[in-house]
């Protein structure tokens, strides 16, 4: 759709891209779930990670996907033993030697005895025996056939361990087929070398696939995809060899070296191995890892495939765990995931990725310097959620009386009115509002006339605009300046009260800023020292692992805040679970001691008295019934004319919000 000035709209054919008629991505439940975790005490990154682990809207999360991968990993470990090729070579070798002995036994010739002696002198190890019989002139056709089967088996298995599905491609291969393999390996080495030198290899890759594509049934679409597949298999081959016993490893390595030498590929394959290492140095080359250990014997190629699958599943499980530094959903390999769990798993992952993208695109999460933070939009929603829960508690207990429908009665009527401004709570002056609208639109022609009788004028609709509104002017009562001091010491986390304290602070901030804009609020967190907290900071904040409950410093910051609002009624609310154990020295450095020193108590009480002299009430919400704390806060509130509350942590928000609302009603009553 194209819009031109003065010409309305012009419509055309949709030519792809996002569906313009698709409903917007609904993030409401996702934001609320993140909010639940944040209000419960988690940080934003931890809350998002937890949501991605759980999944939502019928989609599997990372944890369930990882459990499925771990089950596939368990099955892959039971795939079979890795010495299958070695066992098969031994069986064929025993069959060949036994058939040859049967053919030589009835022959009285001395040459038959020499051949028997040669067979008796064969090395004990399989690789040595195969090498010793390379030039042997077999008498028995059956023995010759068995030995040729060994050669064919080794060629196919050795190449299959480097190139997947090569075993099937070389079934009953002739001389021409082996030459095609040699040409392919030579061209492949040259292609990987060119890629490692940074050359443009796109055309060269296409030519390579046109000529040798039959050896790569997985049909790679780029040189990077081809190299990645080959390098992973080469690393798996090394890992498979490392998982054998020393004797098995030595015998199999000898057999593989012989076979490569016989095919004329020894130097070319060694060069290719080095080139693949250079192209993908990040792979676990030469490292010993998990290897299959089942009852069934696996050939060399199948064993390499099994080890490669184990390595892929291990990597995928690690990616889905997201338990490493800098983890991201972008790290999860979709190809590995589809191979392990099928296309539905990829769709589940795509849904998680879309949710993560939309949280940022729609402005709920911000990423700054690699850190994930809640946006002000999300913080407002969290505050509203916390407040809604508190009001639900108040409704259930009947303690709140929080209806603010009379909020407009903010003072005595003066008899005059003024224009409405955002945040005004005064009642509307309806007469003046309608009059303003009539005067503003008097010169406009009637847009919609109703049928009238002769001699009458057409009826007119009055449309009221924002600028028409006026409110009844009142003698404004004093607003409140509320300082909420929240304990951030580590004991809050140990007692499980930190989540309730965070939720309460956000609920009270939301209540004051949205429903009582004439009031001011500041949230102050205190542990070894105190700090002023913005709502965005509070949402991300975790409790301080430093020791100390420095209420004195928190009260100093509260007093500075109240001084900036000297015309407002001062209110100080303190949420804590312990006696003061820290204070500021004269030079401003924090000092901690447990049990509390008399100097810490004295400095804190002195600061309480300074706050009280400003006219502030200090109400304390004690979250621990420990007698020392209860005695201290009772003494504190007596000095400041406040009260002590000892709520359960689950009802902390209910108590704090109800106390704030009760204080407002008290001001109005005066």
Automatic annotation (TrEMBL):
List every stretch annotated Disordered. 1-22
Q: What is the residue range of the signal peptide feature?
A: none
Q: Where is the composition biased (Basic residues)?
A: 1-13
Domain of life where this protein originates: Bacteria
Q: Which InterPro entries match?
A: VWF_A, vWFA_dom_sf
Please identify the protein, giving its name as recorded. Uncharacterized protein, contains von Willebrand factor type A (VWA) domain
> What positions does the domain VWFA occupy?
479-661
Please give one Pfam family short name: VWA_2
């Amino acid at each position: 759709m194209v819009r031109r000035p003065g010409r309305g709209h012009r419509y055309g054919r949709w030519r792809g891209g996002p569906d313009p008629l698709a409903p917007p991505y609904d993030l409401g439940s996702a934001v609320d779930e993140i909010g639940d975790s944040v209000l419960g005490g988690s940080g934003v990154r931890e809350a998002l990670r937890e949501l991605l682990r759980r999944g939502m809207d019928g989609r599997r999360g990372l944890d369930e996907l990882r459990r499925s991968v771990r089950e596939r990993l368990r099955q892959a470990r039971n795939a079979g033993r890795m010495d299958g090729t070695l066992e098969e070579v031994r069986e064929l070798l025993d069959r060949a030697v036994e058939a040859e002995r049967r053919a030589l036994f009835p022959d009285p010739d001395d040459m038959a005895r020499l051949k028997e002696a040669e067979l008796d002198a064969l090395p004990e190890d399989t690789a040595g025996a195969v090498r010793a019989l390379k030039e042997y002139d077999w008498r028995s056709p059956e023995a010759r056939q068995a030995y040729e089967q060994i050669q064919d088996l080794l060629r196919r298995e050795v190449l299959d361990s480097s190139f997947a599905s090569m075993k099937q491609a070389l079934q009953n291969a002739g001389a021409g087929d082996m030459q095609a393999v040699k040409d392919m390996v030579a061209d492949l080495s040259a292609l990987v070398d060119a890629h490692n030198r940074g050359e443009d290899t796109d055309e060269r890759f296409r030519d390579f696939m046109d000529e040798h594509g039959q050896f790569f049934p997985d049909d790679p679409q780029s040189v990077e995809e081809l190299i990645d597949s080959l390098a992973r298999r080469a690393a798996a081959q090394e890992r498979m060899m490392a998982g054998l016993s020393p004797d098995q490893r030595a015998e199999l390595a000898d057999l593989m070296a012989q076979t490569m030498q016989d095919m004329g590929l020894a130097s070319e394959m060694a060069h290719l191995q080095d080139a693949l290492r250079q192209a993908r140095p990040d792979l676990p080359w030469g490292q010993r890892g998990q290897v299959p250990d089942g009852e069934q014997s696996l050939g060399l190629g199948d064993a390499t495939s099994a080890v490669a699958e184990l390595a892929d599943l291990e990597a995928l499980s690690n990616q889905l765990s997201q338990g490493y530094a800098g983890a991201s959903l972008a790290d999860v390999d979709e190809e590995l995931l589809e191979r392990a769990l099928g296309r539905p798993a990829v769709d589940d992952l795509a849904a998680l990725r879309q949710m993560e993208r939309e949280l940022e695109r729609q402005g709920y999460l911000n990423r700054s310097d690699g850190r994930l933070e809640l946006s002000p939009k999300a913080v407002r929603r969290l505050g509203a959620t916390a407040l809604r829960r508190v009001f639900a508690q108040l409704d259930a207990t009947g303690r709140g009386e929080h209806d603010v429908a009379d909020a407009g009665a903010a003072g005595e009527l003066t008899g005059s009115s003024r224009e409405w401004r955002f945040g005004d709570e005064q009642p509307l002056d309806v007469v003046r509002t309608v009059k303003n609208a009539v005067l503003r639109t008097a010169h406009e022609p009637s847009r919609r006339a109703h049928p009238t009788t002769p001699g009458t004028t057409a009826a007119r609709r009055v449309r009221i605009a924002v600028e028409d509104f006026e409110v009844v002017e009142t003698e404004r009562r004093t607003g409140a300046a509320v300082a909420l001091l929240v304990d951030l010491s580590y004991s809050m986390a140990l007692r499980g009260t930190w989540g309730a304290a965070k939720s309460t602070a956000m609920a009270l901030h939301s209540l004051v800023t949205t429903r009582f804009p004439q009031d001011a609020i500041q949230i102050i967190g205190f542990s070894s020292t105190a700090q002023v907290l913005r709502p965005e900071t509070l949402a991300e904040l975790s409790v301080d692992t430093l020791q100390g409950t420095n209420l004195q410093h928190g009260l100093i910051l509260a007093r500075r805040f109240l001084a900036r609002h000297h015309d407002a009624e001062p209110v100080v609310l303190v949420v804590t679970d312990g006696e003061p154990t820290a204070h500021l020295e004269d030079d401003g450095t924090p000092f901690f001691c447990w049990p509390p020193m008399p100097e810490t108590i004295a400095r804190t009480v002195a600061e309480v008295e300074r706050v009280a002299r400003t006219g502030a009430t200090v109400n304390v919400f004690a979250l621990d019934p420990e007698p020392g704390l209860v005695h201290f806060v009772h003494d504190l509130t007596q000095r400041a004319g406040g009260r002590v509350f000892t709520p359960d942590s689950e009802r902390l928000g209910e108590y704090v919000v109800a106390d704030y609302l009760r204080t407002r009603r008290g001001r109005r009553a005066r």
